[in-house]
Amino acid sequence: MTIKKQITLIEEILYSISRRSSSVIIDGCEPAETGRGGSQATNLQRQAETDWRGRGRPQLPGAGASLGEIQGDAAEMHFAEEAKRLSDLAELLEKQKREEIVEEQEGGRVSNAGTETGVQEGVRFVRSEPAEEGTPPRISADEPCPISGVQKLAGEDLGKQGTDAEAEEPGEGGADSHALQLAEEQEERRRKAVADLKEDNKTIAEEFRDMNLRDKISDDISKKKDIEYNIRSDLLSEDPNVARSSFGPNRVVPDRWKG
Asked: Concatenated DSSP letters for 200-238?
């Protein structure tokens, strides 16, 4: 139960006590009529209460006080003690509430002062007290039981992965770009070598084809000449002068003589 609800409950109890004390019937009689007589009875009752509180015992009209008056005074005394106790409790709760408000204000001023002194110029968002370089309340983004009700807020870098990545990004980016450039150059050289090899193979194939064609033409020409020579030579014409020997007119060359 909050302090505000407790104070409200105490006020309701005090109000009910005052209503009950005002409706007490003395000596079993009905309440006094309104008007002059009623007001006089009320004044007498208040004077009796004042005298009783001043002397610590009820003011009796005489030695022969009735039982109803004694019971009414006892009930009023009990109600007065209860009202005083509840009033003290209400004051205590009110004082406690004021102290809590003062403590919250003091804590807010201290927190604001620390934030103002620790925040660097140009920084927009502050997650905690930046002046204290310590571990945040949540050790990591995957902690099962964090102080906060959420696991991880957008933009938080509890493990400093983002900072480390930014620090390593220039070197890795340069290395990656250099490696990519080397890979592109190597691929370009490979494509050029393949193209040159294809061109060389094509040239060699054309030369080989031309050489075979020349050899065939030369062979054909040689065969034609041989045939023409054999057709027009004296060997096939059967001329006897061809077989005549130089050793004498009656002698012949056997390999040229057909008989």
From this structure: HHHHHHHHHHHHHHHHHHHHHHHHHHHHHHHHHSHHHHT
Q: Which position has the higher pLDDT, 34 or 114?
A: 114
First to last CA, the chain: 154
Tens of pLDDT, residues 37-83: 445 545 555 665 555 555 444 444 444 456 667 777 778 888 888 88
d(CA 152, CA 140): 9
Tokens for 84?
């005083």
Asked whether the beta carbons of 156 and 149 are under 8 A apart, the reply is no
CB atoms < 10 A from the CB of 73, how many?
20
CA angle centred on 216, ends 210 and 219, rounded to 5°: 140
Tokens 């991880």, located at residue: 152
Are the C-beta atoms of 10 and 90 separated by less than 8 Å?
A: yes
8 A C-beta contact, residue 156 and residue 141 = yes
Task: Count other Cβ atoms within 10 Å, centred on residue 76.
Answer: 19
- Residues recorded for the chain: 259
Rounded to whole angstroms, the Cα distance separating 123 from 202 reads 69
User: Which residues, 6+ apart, have CB-to-CB distance to 82 below 8 Å?
Assistant: 17
